[in-house]
Amino acid sequence: MNQLHREYRNKGLQFITIDKAGVILSSDQQLIDFEKGSLLKDVHPFFENIGVYFEDDSEYAKLECIHIEDRIFDIDFILNDDHTAVIILREGTDFYKRVQVMTQKRNESLIFQERLELKNQLLKEQEEFKNRFIANFSHELRNPLTLISSFSSMLMKKDINLDQQMLIEAIKSQSEKLRGILNDILDLSILKNSSLSLENAPFSLRKLLKNLQLNYTTSHLDLNFKVNIDTNVPKTIIGDKRRFEQVITNFIDNALKHNKGDSIEINIQENQRRANKVSLRIEVTNNEGIIPDILSDPKLENYTSIGHGDIEKTTGLSFSIARELAQLMDGDIRIKHCENGGTTQVANLKLSFPIHDEEIEEQVEKKTKPKVQLSEKIRTIIAEENSVSKMTALKILVSTGNFDTQVFTDPKNLLGAVENDEYDLILMSSSISQLDTIELISLIKEFANDHNKKIPIIGVTTQTAPEDIAALRKAGCKDVIKKPYTDDELTNTIYKRLNLKKFK
Question: What percent of the chain has pLDDT over 90?
Fold first, then answer.
């Protein structure tokens, strides 16, 4: 044993010999002072039960990471043949502290990773909740808006006095404004989810601006509305005309809401061009009125809360949509305050133009069509359970005098009707009694008689996302009408999709 003591002396080891009663027989005093003849348990409470190792059949035991005073030891217990025992203390304080630091860093890393995963999960759940809220919000608004839009349009066609006409026009105007806000909310949701794709078709830039100027000067008679286009700007642009126009109209609407002067000016210049690509700079300036800097904040949703005040001043939504659309066109937008107290909104957008840049002729669809008069009525099914939507569609069709309508709110009755009778058209709602349109169309194809298997089905839906419309068309809808709609939009779609010769 003396040889062993000499070999491990000064190597962070200490040897203590004790008897079965726990009395210290010897100690080399390398690490801790153990007084010969004293009890081991008096040195530290850990050794209180050291006697159990004498009773164990094993001659060796190892104890790790034992804290004695302010140090950490590994302890070996070796039982001798003479019923004495050797206790070896192995100093491990530095090692265990390093391990503790490493373990703490690893735990912190695991905790950070877990927090990150929880945060991502929370953001995902928040996004899903927002999307569900927007979908429900859209669904709840579109049915009453359909009634307001359709009935106000129908009333405008009646013989009414000037006061009545002004009241109805006010109702129609505000319903269109709500419809625009609703579409803006859905557009922003789609843009945030990066699920919007841009179309790519040629259009006349100058004609687009001329029509905008005409529309705004007609509705704002006291407004001096100027449009300036540099001569070097291409005549024809290849891109998404509707989205390009949406950026400009959002700028104009924003300017009108804050304008305190009598002038709004649009300037379009060319930044640069390469091959058939061109970068355009669009500026919309209102000569008086400061647009809030907060609109440049990416977190525009905080500003768009209608509860913060007058809905007329809620401009963050339109500006946010314009920014998202600009990014899709590899561009950007910003706000500049003018020295004269006005504001300039700027968009830099990248588009294409044809190699042979010539003014193109765009077909303009006539908005007014002659009234359709049929000698034979169109036998029509309205599959709708919402009372407001049901009344709206029924009232519109009855007012034309061209439809013989039946309304079904129960899928069983609907399937029975298409099996036993003959019809010319089905107007299909988004769902009936928790049965969605696609499933119901499949059942109609299965149960309908030979005549009705070929019946045109027009979907009438509050689900306006592109993928939802595509799914309805794939399921068999001849066309899809998105709520809210007007009376003309409903009847024109029906007449377009039916062969009216058989009813004349």
Answer: 23
